[in-house]
Each structure stands twice: as C-alpha cells, then as structure tokens.
C-alpha cells in the first residue's frame, strides 16, 4: 500500500501500477512489475533492495530518462507518460536535479563551470553564476571554485555534483547511489550536506542506495525485490537520530 500523505496535500510523486520491461537477447526482462506508491512533498525517500531489483529503473522513470511500459507516473501534477519529447526535456531541465554515483563532471571545466552546466543551453547569467558560487561555498568548496575535476578528491567532486543538481532550484532531487564510489567517512559527510541542503530548500529527495545506515526513522523507505514493491514504510515523527544527521 502507498504511504499516506501527512499534510493533506496531493503527493509530490504518485506512481500507479508501474511496469517496465525490455528485451535482452531473445527474452523479455520485467524490471518493474506493478509498482504503486506515493511520496510527499519535501520528504526524503530511500529506494532499497538487492542489485537488479529495479531500483534504478524506478529512479530513471521518475526523472523521465526512460518511459514505462504501462502504468502512470505523476510528479507535481504532471503526467510524465503523456509528455512529448520536448516537454520531457523541459521537465528534466527545469524541475529535476540528478546526482549520479560516477559524478559525471566534465574534465575540462572548473568547479563553477560544472555547476553551471544546466544553464548552458539557454545562457548563463550573472545571477546564475552567483548562485553557483554560493552553493559551492555552502558545500565547503569556496576555495576550489577554479579547480578542475582531476584536482578534486572524490568527495569534492560529488559536492560539485550536488551543487550542480541544486543550482536550478529543482522541485525533485534524484540520487542514484550518490556515495557508491566514496569511502564511508566521505559518504557520511556527503549525506550530511545533501540532507541539510534538501531540508533548507524543502526539495523532495529520492535516493537509491544499498547502504541502509544513512536511513533515519523519519524517512520513507521503498523496498523493491524482483521488480515489485515489498515494503513501503511511511514517514515517522522526527527523532533524535534524524536530527543528529
């Protein structure tokens, strides 16, 4: 059953009977098999489960990086399945921030320039640049603005990626194993930064992860196995554990 909304408002994300299949050689693989769930606005939700369970497939569908075989996805009232290609491009550009495990920074651009990438198609303004610098300062990289990725540590590169995802002030932030290539200490630091910025902006955050130690009692947990939702735990009241993260 989908988690109930806590504030009486429509959920930020509403997924109904979502299915995704694809061909692999001569067989059909069902990545998702009838997933139904909701996620409240401004909340943090973790998608967990074993490798190959369909976690990342769900994330890519929420970001309109792929299209479902059947079922529906509504994000902030938008029906993703009915969007044209140009509408999907605008949705990804304007409303969604992506954070990937592999950082996906461009090697010949500085930290500031990498953060500004979302604005390149329409042009970078002075306000955009000031916003990018402010975000880099917030993640502790104010002294590394002109450094290129090869001069940054893995943790610093992921901080740049977080700033890039937030610079366009998205309503939805999607993170696919954001600490998968980092050591545990750096991973802890990245999650502290990510949670702080998400809470300040009241952005809806959906994280795919294998590492459950970052989950706190006030988070929603969507557990997927073999393409099906096997557990959907609603948001709990604030706890001292959540506040220490």
Describe the protein's architecture and organization:
The protein has about 240 residues and is of the alpha/beta class. It has a single domain (about 15-235), classed as Rossmann fold (3-Layer(aba) Sandwich). Helix content is about 30%, strand content about 25%. The protein has helices spanning about 55-60, 85-95, 110-115, 125-140, 155-165, 185-200, 240-245; strands spanning about 15-25, 25-40, 45-50, 70-75, 80, 95-100, 170-175, 205-210, 220-225, 230-235. Strand 7, helix 6 and strand 8 form a beta-alpha-beta unit. The protein starts with 12 loop residues before the first strand and ends with a helix. Residues about 1-5 and about 235-245 have low confidence and may be disordered.
């Amino acid at each position: 059953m989908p988690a109930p909304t806590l504030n009486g408002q429509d959920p930020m994300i509403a997924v109904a009977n979502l299915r995704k299949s694809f061909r692999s050689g001569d067989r059909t693989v069902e990545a998702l098999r009838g997933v139904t769930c909701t996620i409240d606005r401004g909340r943090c939700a973790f998608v967990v489960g074993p490798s190959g369970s369909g976690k990342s497939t769900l994330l890519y569908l929420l970001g309109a990086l792929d299209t479902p075989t059947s079922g529906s996805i509504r994000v902030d009232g938008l029906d993703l399945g009915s969007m044209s290609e140009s509408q999907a491009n605008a949705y990804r550009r304007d409303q969604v921030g992506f954070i990937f495990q592999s950082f996906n920074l461009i090697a010949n651009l500085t930290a500031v320039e990498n953060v500004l990438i979302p604005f390149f198609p329409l042009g970078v303004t002075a306000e955009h640049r000031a916003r990018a610098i402010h975000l880099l300062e917030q993640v502790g990289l104010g002294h590394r603005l002109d450094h290129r990725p090869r001069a940054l540590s893995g943790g610093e590169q992921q901080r740049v990626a977080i700033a890039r995802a937030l610079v366009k002030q998205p309503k939805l932030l999607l993170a696919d194993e954001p600490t998968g290539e980092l050591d545990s200490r750096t991973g802890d630091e990245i999650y502290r930064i990510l949670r702080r910025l998400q809470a300040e902006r009241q952005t809806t955050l959906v994280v795919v992860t294998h590492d459950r130690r970052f989950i706190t009692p006030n988070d929603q947990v969507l557990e997927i196995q073999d393409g099906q939702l096997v557990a959907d735990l609603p948001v709990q009241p604030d706890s001292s554990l959540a506040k220490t993260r």
